[in-house]
Amino acid sequence: MSATDKNRDPLAKVAVVISFVVLLFATFPLIVTAITAFNATSETVFPPNGWSLRWFENILRQPDLMRAAVFSLMLALLSSAISISLGMMSAIALTRSKFPGRDLIDAFLLSPLLVPQVILGLSFLVFFVRVGSSQPFLNLLTLHVVLTFPYALRVIRSSLMRMNPKLEEAAVGLGASGIKSFFLVTFPQMRPSLFVAVFFCFVVSFDNFTASAFLTVSGATLPVQIYFSIESSLDPTISAISALLILGSAIFVIVADRVVGVEKII
Amino acid sequence: MSGAGIEIDNITVRYGDAVTVKALTLDVKPGEFLSLLGPSGCGKTTTLRSVAGFSDISGGDIRIGGTSVRNVPANKRNIGMVYQDYALFPHMNVEKNIGFGLRMRGVSSDEIKQRARAAAEQLGLQKFLDRYPQQLSGGQQQRVALARALVVRPDVLLLDEPMAALDKQLRANMQFELKELQRSVGITTVFVTHDQEEALSLSDRIAVMSEGKILQVDKPDTLYHFPATRFVAEFVGTANLLKAKIVNTSGRSCLELEGLGISVPLQRERAAGEVEVLLRPEQISFGNDHAAGGVSFDARILGAVFVGAAIRYQVAAPSGQILRIDVLGAQSVHPNAGEVATISWRTQDMRIYRDGKLEE
Amino acid sequence: MKARLGFLLLLLPALGLIAGFLTALTSVLVLSVVDSSGALSLESYRLFLGDDRYMGILLRSVWIAAYVTVICLVLGYPIAIAMSRASRTTASLITLALAIQFFSIYVVKMYGWMLILGNNGVVNRVLVASGLVNAPVKLMYNELGVAIGLTAAALPLMVFPINAVLQTISLRYEEAALSLGAGRLRALLLITMPLSLPGILSGVILTFVFCFAAYLTPGLLGGGFFKMIGNVIYEQAVARFNYPLAATAAVITLIISLGAIIGVNKASQALAGGRR
Predict the structure, then answer these.
(1) pTM of structure
(2) If exposure means fewest CB atoms within 10 Å of the residue's CB, which of A224, A233, C101, C250 is most exposed?
(3) Which subunits have 3 or more CB–CB pairs within 8 Å of chain A?
(4) Which value does ipTM take for this structure?
């Protein structure tokens, strides 16, 4: 019944109109960026002076961009894997047992979410300078695990909290061992939340600029590399790689919507 | 103040492709307490919501006090509404909740205070004015909802299953209070419920609904004793329905009860054919008191349950048909399960249904 | 007892990780309160707070974050209303569009704004072509450009929490208000908005902290002409190797951020006080 009730609300209609206008404003840069990637000339302008695909080809001739893309991909995959493993272990510990100070530990583990990115970045810079670690990949990996772990923990923990522990007990009652019952009963139910956790971890890591910029003066990650390329030249190659990234984000979100529903990732 | 009548004139309500209310016509008289009774999904709440202005009607008209409200938005209809979950504003205390309607009508704050307090007093809420809804019991919340709806002196009061969330004891008390309140205020009231006992005890008239249509509108006792259709007979009260056949021989009609070998002469001539006979459980009794001019036969007792004032028996007729019989606890005859006992009823208590409809 | 120990072992790696992070954070705090010889000193704070340039940047960061938060609330509330009140198809279209915008790469979004707001950007081309102006208008490398970029980047941070709360509020409350004579607008202002306050407050916190400590947006759209506190921290640390000053700015930023979080939480508790 609510569907029709909703249609009758004139304020909702006004809200929809405002939403479309504001969303057009918010997504306009993405549209403009994608279209300028098809410029025929080396001037990045909208509307384009003519059409070509040469700037997409040109991405392949930019070793810095290519290297940064691979670097960011590896970083995102590895940090997501670590964060999700840690997140799953911590979430199980926090939801399947009771001990004093549990809420405090919970708040402690989620604390990186409260700290602005610039301060996270500075903290790790100071830390790595002090310990003398000059391994860009390892340094960034540590930073990205700290950045993504709270998301993994939050998503997995809330899914475990909603789950009925009686099911696992029932499985144990039926003769399964504790570990077996976890993998046969609990784990399959966790799959949607694991998907959401992977989504968040991957996007947070791959997209991160602010904190990472403190650890990569040379521009090791893709967002940092793009940032410095923007500062140095306004050639449509940046538009081309941006267009690919926008397309990637859109596919990511649409796939997530199909798999778990978009409301789970916002 | 006796309120305004409601005329629901041939309305149809659609949700998408589904029609939930079909060409429904119903008159509620000024000051009347009318219940819309039916199983869930029968369209009773939709009907109420279209009177309130929350469901669009795609055909027909609704008049309150003789004026069409078809194009009047909900907030201009001057109605009082009480919901199943009361929908008390959680961020306002009792006094603010009750005064909300007056505030919307631009009443001065002094008068709001005075009238809200008076309404609270009428419902025994004077001690709770500063409380918030979540600090009140279910019964108190319902009183606040009633006070909030009535304080604006609406033309009609619409109640959407307001008792459903209360436990049984409290519900009985609130029914009594509600009836008293409605009588003293004299406001036209439409009450939606799926609980037939509640409808029978509260209403001046009951409209029984099924699948978007009204099957019967009548006073509670008429509805109980003369249900217009087989559906109403089964939905209101408990029904024993026996298969039977009407046979005409030499100008006289006889009712032959299937599998019992009993033939009952009827008062007037009826068309021959298959029919069903309705008997309420309390109309059947043990012994053969009604044998003369009635129906009587031996049945096997299957079991009995104690239902408070009465004992309800399940018995099997020789035909195999199961009948339910209510015997008042004070009555002396109490056969045991497995025994065979004579049962009987009066001819005039039988109602005859042909194709599911009552035959006068 | 044995089981409990097992669970603690499961927690250990994560505890170690976060403890490491908090150690790093603490070392920043320590850096800000010692001098070059390692003795306790508030010299960095005296330097920072006594410098009109830094103080100007700090206050301007608070100010821009405050008004961008207000703009995001005004623009974002109707979106949250549409997401929870519009028909299912429209609502999911809006949600999907906002999610795609939100999950697009931050640096790409800001690059897009440079293509729109630059001297040779979309807006100036339209303005010049239409003859409204003779020369391009300065739309970025100033406060305006940074404010636009921050608004676009922070908008989903405002909308999502409000939407989450609105989804849980029964439509019955609004209906009850209508049946009592309230118009749609009054039902929204007096019933729905107060009930969605928890969502508004989390949106305000997220938006404010994100904008206040922004670095990327002022970096690109301010272009060195309009700096925020994030730029100061980055420059002092990465370009000047002046860690004590960067640490001081960072600690001040952290205090203001946490102060805003605590302040808003306190305010929400005070507002909800009577109900609990």
Answers:
(1) 0.89
(2) A233
(3) B, C
(4) 0.92
